[in-house]
Amino acid sequence: MAPAARFLALGIDAEPHAPLPPGVCGAVAFGPEPARLRALTARRPDVAWDRLLFSAKESVYKAWSGYGGAWLGFEDVEVAWEAAPDEAPPPEARTDDPAATGRFRARLLVPPPEPASPEAPPGPCPFPSLLHGRWLVRDGLLLTAVAVPRPVPHPHPHPSPSRTAPKESAR
Fold first, then answer.
1. pTM of the predicted model as reported, rounded to 2 decimal places
2. Which letter does DSSP use for residue 4 in this model?
3. Cβ burial 15-44 (10 Å sphere, 16+ → b, else e)
4. Which residues pair with 135 in a beta bridge?
5. Burial of 144 per CB tally in 10 Å (0-12, 13-18, 19+)
6. Measuring CA to CA, which residue among 150, 147, 149, 151 is closest to residue 59?
7. What CA–CA distance (Å, rounded) separates 132 from 135?
């Protein structure tokens, strides 16, 4: 799937491209998410945004739990779509299977998990509180994925000997 040397965690989810059953969206969408779903649905009614939100959160949960995080509730992650997709095609050109793609941001509303691996670097947990993901709707499915990259180590500059300590003057 992804090289472990490059990624801390990976979360992938696939769902049928269909609206969530009645009442489920209220258990998934919190804070500003219901208003975002309404705005997106008005713009692209051919995309099942409620199910896409569910799937995006599932991808985050899979990455989180794979890293060693405790249980997350739907209220523990806030999803925002990075860019509204193009407007829906005209009604006469619509199909039940739109092709749409985009990106999302998921903000963790809880402290990050401790690393599950004993080989994890010491110090603050590198699991970020803001994750970036991608989504796709095609062939009757919607897919979401979140990849959490490992931090890139930055070499610490070694000070030159002339800068480490002031020179003592001869008396």
1. 0.77
2. T
3. bebeebeeeebeebbbeebeebbeebbeeb
4. 102, 144
5. buried
6. 147
7. 10
For β-strands 7-16 and 77-81, DSSP reports them as unpaired
Which residue in the block uniquely carries the two structure tokens 């092709």?
99
Residue 126's pLDDT band (boundaries 50, 70, 90)?
confident
Q: State both tokens at 31.
A: 């804070």
Q: Tens digits of per-residue pLDDT, 37-76?
A: 999 999 889 899 999 999 999 999 999 887 777 788 999 9
Answer left, alpha or beta for residue 68, where phi above 0 means left and psi between -120 and 50 means alpha: left
- Collect all residues with Cβ–Cβ distance below 8 Å to 61 and sequence separation of at least 6: 11, 72, 77
Percent helix, strand, coil in the chain, to 5, is 25, 25, 50
d(CA 41, CA 97): 15
Q: Which two tokens stand for residue 132?
A: 């970036």
